[in-house]
UniProtKB/TrEMBL annotation:
The keyword Transferase does not apply. One of its GO terms (cellular component) is membrane. The keyword Transmembrane applies. This is MFS general substrate transporter. One of its GO terms (molecular function) is transmembrane transporter activity. Residues 53-445 form the Major facilitator superfamily (MFS) profile domain. Residues 32-46 have a biased composition (Low complexity). Keywords: Membrane, Transmembrane, Transmembrane helix. Residues 1-46 are annotated as: Disordered. Its main location: membrane. It is found in: Membrane. The chain crosses the membrane at residues 58-82, 94-117, 124-143, 149-172, 181-201, 213-233, 254-271, 291-308, 320-339, 345-363, 384-406, 412-435.
Amino acid sequence: MGSRSQAQAECGEKRVASDAFAEVKSTSPVISESQSPTQPQSPNSVTSDGGLLAKLQVLACFLVLMNTWGIVNTFGAYQSFYEVDLLRSHSPSAISWIGSFQAFLLFLVSVLTGPIFDAGHTPALLGVGSFLVILGTMMTSLVKTYYQAFLAQAVCIGLGAGMMFVPSIAIVSTYFDKDRAFAIGVGASGSSFGGIIYPTIFHELQPRIGFGWATRVIGLIALVTLVIANLVTRQRVVPATRRKLFDASALREPPFIFCTLGLCFGFIGLYNPFFYITTFALSKTGASATLAFYFVPIVNAASVFGRLAPTALADRVGTLNTLIPCTIICGALVLAWAAVHSTGALLAFALLYGFFSGSFVSLPPSTLVSLSPDLSKVGTRIGMSFGVSSLGVLVGSPVGGALINLHTGQFVRMQVFCAVTMFVACAMLVIARVAKSGLVVMAKA
């Protein structure tokens, strides 16, 4: 009788798991680990690799990333405008602190939002985060001075984006198993999409309706898309016990440690081309102001494909096996950037760098998931890793800006700096891969 009851319970559980839409209509859309009639559920036991609800989480992730990292990727357009207009009395390095601090807060706040996500408070994180991003964007439209831009664009938007980033990625990881990296890559491509449409909107509307209204249009788009994301998001797994802010066991795992160091070094150099490619085009290639501006959307457009193709490959050969070559190619491309002197060559660089740098943004979450033996702690671990990576994001672009000499038009020191950090990142990732799978070349890692 006990075996029959257990079999009936398992059969009923499978019928519920196979109908994703029924979960939306249930009174409690969140599955708790304590609900299983036989044993506590882990995130691995509830993955579905498909269904309407799973696809809606990818859509929500896409929209959230569009309004978090998409806005961060847009700062290159604001950097160019601030340098020649609103904040022209400040150096490029000082202006870049606004964008780098925005990305720094996005990562740093992830340290807190990871455990809060694990505790099941995703609706609050998305709601408050959406409000802050929209408020910060609207306040940016009113700025007149540097400190106002810093508070609105760096602090307010950075805090809001940090509240939403980890939950949106972590939720997708609990709905997919076999195709997890690709699903996360589709969601992460929202950041590239935002990095295409938002700079383009700003560039086209700013001369016609002014800086303020061009920024408000971006805020209105963020409002609509974030409302949709809040409505469709459903957290699927809530651990039965309250999670700690810090998972000390991760510090005893060399793959996690070296992967985190690799991500930190990589993010030091990663965003310098996004911030300074327009200035480089104007100074070194003789491109028109309009053409120079569009190099930022071009890099982001190429990044869309870089977030999809490598992630599809990663599901088959392993995330680290895919991330490592993409990282070393980024370093080589930045070195090659130093030899660029024409718009055609710069276009080739923008397309290639956009493609391979896209993998460095989309693959780390699924890489950290693959390195986590207990997926119920994935939010905490992603938060810990990205908290360390935030230091790289914070210092990278301002240091790069300080290495640029606009009076002589010399960018080579910034380019070498970026390349070296990417090569160091690659070395750390290789050590993480060896620590996880040994020296077996064909091992999936």
